[in-house]
Design a protein that fits this description.
Layout lengths: L2 H13 L38 E9 L5 H22 L21 E9 L6 H7 L12 E5 L14 H7 L4 H13 L19 E9 L5 E8 H4 L4 H12 L9
Parallel strand pairs: 1-2, 2-3
Antiparallel strand pairs: 1-5, 4-5
Length: 257
Amino acid sequence: MSQNAQNLTRSLRFCKGAPPPPLHDCRDNTRQPAVLPPSLRMPTPSPPGHATALRITLGVGLRAQARADDVHTLWQQARQALCHALQQASPPHSAGEGEGEGAAAPLMHQLHIVTLAALTHKCGHPALRHWLADAQDWHAPQPPRLLAVPVTELPAQPVHTRSAHMLARYGSGSVAEACALWAAALLGQAIPPTHGPPASAAQPPRARLLLPRIVAANRRATLAVAMSAADAQTLGAALESALAAAAAQLPPPKALA
């Protein structure tokens, strides 16, 4: 049978209801969808009624006599306040659950400390080096990265505390709050203003202060907590309210000489 006759026979079979020949998929199925690295992914909003993991930055102010224990104690106070807020924003548990200090332990893993920020000339302070070496404080495989903050960046940060002494020395009411806010703005991939005037109400916030500065009992160290404005937009209403209540329950800021 000639080639033309064979083609005609196949065409007639198809017209009589014979199944068509299988189609060949010309697409390349070996290619995998592109996956963005974690640093470029936008935070995923939490479902209603569930607390979200907090990507936070810590700002630290230190005197020359400060010790690692001072920073450790300040972080314990801040962590307790944040965990309490997470616990308040979590769904209600059955009777007997969610009570006591042990119930807050899993919530510590929802605090992702991305950056620890301090003034450039304070990054080599023994208190910071020794505290970062204590892995028990982080509940993570490794401590956060240490970020050096130039003194010239402090005045542009919208701090909450207004210490007259700090304003005269650094142009900012709180070193700890300014460092935390500057680091959080970098975390949100928004470059903070350099050598600019303090932020006004008309400017969109680049970072949000979660906890204003906490002052050590011996007044040798301060600590504040912030997060990027992009991350703050993912907070649910319950967590927003709980964080505001936690900040209000902290001791009022004192003038740090």
